[in-house]
Amino acid sequence: MMTSSQSIESAYQAAKERYAELGVDCDQALLRLSAVKLSLHCWQGDDVAGFERLSGESASQDIGGGLAVTGNYPGRARTPNELRADAEQAFSLIPGKHRFNLHASYAETGGETVQRSELRPEHFAAWMEWARDRGLGLDFNPTFFGHPLASDGFTLSHHQRSIREFWIQHGIVCREIAAEMGRFVGQPCVNNVWIPDGMKDSPFDRSAPRQRLLEALDQVFADPMNPSHVLDAVECKLFGLGSESYVVGSHEFYLGYAITRRKLLCLDAGHFHPTEVISDKISSVLNYVEGLLLHVSRGVRWDSDHVVTLTDELLAIAQELVRGGYLGRVQPGLDFFDASINRIAAWVIGARNLLKALLIALLEPADTLRALEVAGDYTGRLAMLEELRFMPFAAIWDYHCLNSDVPTGHRWLDDVRDYEARTVSQRTAKSRKD
Ligand code: RNT
Ligand code: ZN
């Protein structure tokens, strides 16, 4: 009997020959896949709760900003150490070396109350040490929600100067924190600005909040910073819960901002009309912006943040990145939150799916398809694309997992269940460990 690693290797050899017949080099595809660094969002691990409030609050608390986490699966991370342990467990099941994406609300202040406008890099020292020790990159986000000064739905575009200034200051200190993170871990930290500002019902004045936002952002970004430490990104949105009629930071607002101020544009897959897809936007906006941050997510009806599955749109996003040669200019990140299933499994499913989609895209016979298209042979193009859907990419993926020391196939779930039995299920709403 063959051992499972032998059978994975022989399946790989057979699949590799099939791909070679199409002119595709599987080893090369895996090399390219290994270089991809995903940004794994911390907030799936604890339902976007952060550590500013006391632990033990119900998982479905209102985090504000129109963000709603539904579900009450037991065992959410309640402390920084639990979240780090859970993230490590997830990373151990995802092939490759990646990045961890933090929000300002995950500061560790040692029990002290620190205003968001006064956060400093030292409040993230433990995160930085943890990341550097494990060879992880870090990304960052100022937190413009879940705060009394955001409770009326406005932050950087607030009509009241003092509130606006509080949030501008928050934006400024977060950039400094992000720059220190990037310097410390030795890879640039993407600092992404998303604000919830908007209105439930039709505003009378759509213009003034946008002018205020523009000025506020210019103040946040006034200090030129070293791009090898921090890269600024701005995230647009069409509507949110409670901001159905008007969002200040709309697509056009931030597209213009990113172009004129040379920022990265963040496209979140769940932030557009239900039939609108971000895959078709990538090759357009990259003519004008230097780079993109992607929040790969899955919208379902009114929710923009379901766990990423291997959908046609996920494949289309991955294909755009590979076909357009954009992997060097686009930072792929995940953004979803589901509290109804094991949270570590949610991370692993989403991250493995994004990597699988990239692998499938890397295994396309690009030259052949381009030639067919240029020749006007759309019959051949369609036939080839349909054949590709049924190629043995699972054998290539398994081989990649084997070589990356992570479980192949569905075996990763055994590790998650084991960890759950040992650790996560021991957590109760009331106990607090560190
Ligand atoms: C909200 C945005 C934003 C958040 C995170 C928590 O609609 O997508 O990216 O999900 O900052
Ligand atoms: Zn997002």
User: Which shape, going by the Cα principal axes?
Assistant: globular
Helical content stands at 40-55%
Q: What does the largest sheet look like?
A: 5 strands, parallel
Q: In CATH terms, what is the fold-level topology of the domain at 37-79 and 97-344?
A: TIM Barrel
SSE sequence, one letter per element: HHEHEHEHEEHEEHEHEEEHEHHHHH
Gyration radius (Cα, Å) is: 22 Å
Structural class: alpha/beta
Strand content: 5-15%
Give the CA-CA distance, first to last residue. 48 Å
Bound molecules: L-rhamnitol, zinc ion
**Mean pLDDT, nearest integer?**
95
Low-pLDDT stretches are 54-60
- CATH-scheme architecture of the domain at 37-79 and 97-344: Alpha-Beta Barrel
Total E-strand runs: 12
Strand order of the largest sheet: 4-6-8-9-12
Write the layout of secondary structure elements.
Layout: H1 4-21, H2 26-34, E1 39-41, H3 80-91, E2 99-103, H4 125-133, E3 137-141, H5 161-185, E4 189-193, E5 198-199, H6 207-220, E6 230-235, E7 246-247, H7 251-261, E8 264-268, H8 279-285, E9 292-296, E10 298-300, E11 303-306, H9 312-323, E12 330-334, H10 343-362, H11 366-374, H12 378-388, H13 393-403, H14 412-422
Parallel strand pairs: 1-2, 2-3, 4-6, 6-8, 8-9, 9-12
Antiparallel strand pairs: 5-7, 10-11
Helix pairs in contact: 1-13, 2-10, 3-10, 5-6, 8-9, 9-10
Bound molecules: L-rhamnitol (RNT) and zinc ion.
